[in-house]
């Protein structure tokens, strides 16, 4: 699934799964590089002289729609009382199929030939729901498997969608007196294995990084018993792959890239450093060897890059620590005015980033009525920043990238108030033959 990697203002939760889903026009862009200073002469001078790559235009979307790309299929997800989803064929722009959703969308997972959609009724008191309300909501939740090509319903099951494993297994939370997590074969809906859900703080999904933070994937189920026994399970087979012991009385907070973080201490700080809350990190790949310990009077340390965890406090910038050593990597002051620092911190301006974790991220110019939109490639490895302009479009508001497609959304120019999606094959991007040197001033730095 596609994750635009939206920067949150507050302490983020565990890595996603994802999301795998973003409502364009509602949520902010992934990151941005500048604070309004890009000269129009740069854009005009770098415009491709020859015809650009083929652009497929698909119109008529609501500005409140969400989007999911599965292979060569674009899913438009409609919110509100008449919630539903519509599938479009990206190579042609033609509509394939449409399906209503009885209840609001609760989750979606790309399983290759099928897409799993979880729906659930709205909670009566979403801010402070009771356990009885949560149990009733789970009992009324439904997971439906749709054929991506035809929209045909393959199967339905009661429960809530929790995640997926390499498009091989779907993970569901099943309702009932004893709640369970179930591993489901996606094409037929049959159960591979089932296991009781442990209390909060005693289980998590373990995540690993493939090529960057945005391409992290879940690879194990981690359970922590009260006596300190740690159990790791293979998510495809349900078999126990590893057991170990840590000091008892802890709660799982981090299971990230081969490192486990266990929190100890009271919920409320006492002022005694020997007693107050702290997180101890263990190396899963080295028989749970102790790595380091950090005091955390409030909040937690959460993953914020492939090899870092962050502490989020009153400072708008988090404190960054090396995942395996605990070294404080926080960058302050003038050091933050670097290209990569701006890219990571999400400075909003003219250039906005589509895929921040790559060494040559795709960037696009923010919407402006008086100029065309541009998508380019930024080289962050060079001492002098360089940008290669790839394609010009109508003013665009946001872009996302998949393995095969670049998709950009425009809300700015349509007088009907509807949105337009532009789709371009990545293989067809008409790149200029050179990377254009630019200055920090050009990028708003």
UniProtKB/TrEMBL annotation:
It comes from the Bacteria. This is PQQ-like beta-propeller repeat protein. The lineage of its organism: Bacteria, Bacillati, Actinomycetota, Actinomycetes, Micromonosporales.
């Amino acid at each position: 699934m596609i994750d635009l990697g939206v920067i949150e203002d507050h302490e983020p939760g565990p890595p996603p799964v994802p999301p795998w889903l973003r409502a364009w026009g509602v949520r902010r862009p992934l990151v941005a590089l500048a604070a309004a200073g890009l000269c129009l002469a740069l854009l005009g001078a770098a415009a491709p002289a020859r015809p650009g790559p083929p652009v497929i235009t698909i119109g008529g979307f609501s500005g409140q729609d969400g989007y999911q790309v599965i292979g060569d299929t674009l899913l438009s997800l409609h919110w509100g009382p008449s919630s539903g989803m519509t599938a479009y064929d990206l190579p042609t722009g033609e509509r394939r199929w449409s399906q209503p959703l009885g209840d609001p969308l609760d989750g979606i997972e790309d399983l290759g030939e099928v897409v799993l959609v979880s729906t659930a009724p709205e909670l009566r008191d979403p801010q402070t729901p009771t356990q009885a309300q949560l149990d009733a909501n789970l009992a009324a939740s439904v997971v439906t498997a749709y054929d991506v090509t035809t929209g045909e319903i393959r199967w339905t099951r009661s429960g809530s969608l929790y995640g997926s494993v390499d498009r091989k297994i779907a993970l569901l939370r099943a309702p009932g007196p004893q709640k369970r997590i179930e591993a489901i074969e996606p094409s037929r809906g049959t159960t591979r294995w089932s296991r009781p859900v442990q209390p909060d703080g005693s289980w998590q999904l373990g995540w690993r990084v493939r090529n960057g933070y945005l391409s992290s994937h879940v690879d194990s189920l981690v359970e922590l018993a009260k006596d300190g026994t740690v159990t790791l399970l293979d998510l495809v087979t349900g078999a126990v792959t590893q057991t170990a012991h840590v000091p008892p009385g802890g709660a799982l907070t981090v299971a990230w890239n081969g490192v486990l973080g266990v929190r100890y201490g009271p919920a409320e700080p006492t002022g005694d450093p020997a007693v107050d809350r702290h997180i101890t990190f263990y190396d899963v790949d080295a028989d749970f060897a102790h790595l380091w310990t950090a005091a955390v009077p409030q909040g937690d340390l959460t993953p914020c890059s492939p090899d870092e965890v962050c502490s989020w406090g009153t400072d708008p910038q988090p404190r960054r620590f090396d995942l395996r050593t605990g070294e404080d990597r926080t960058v302050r002051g003038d050091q933050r005015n670097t290209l990569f620092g701006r890219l990571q911190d999400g400075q909003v301006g003219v250039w906005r980033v589509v895929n921040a974790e790559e060494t040559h991220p795709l960037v696009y110019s923010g919407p402006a009525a008086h100029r065309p939109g541009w998508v380019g490639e930024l080289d962050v490895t060079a001492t002098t920043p360089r940008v290669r302009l790839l394609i010009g479009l109508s003013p665009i508001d946001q872009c996302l990238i998949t393995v095969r497609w670049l998709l950009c959304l425009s809300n700015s120019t349509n007088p009907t108030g509807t949105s337009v999606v532009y789709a371009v094959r990545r293989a067809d991007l008409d790149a200029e033959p050179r990377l254009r040197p630019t200055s920090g001033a050009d990028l708003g730095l």
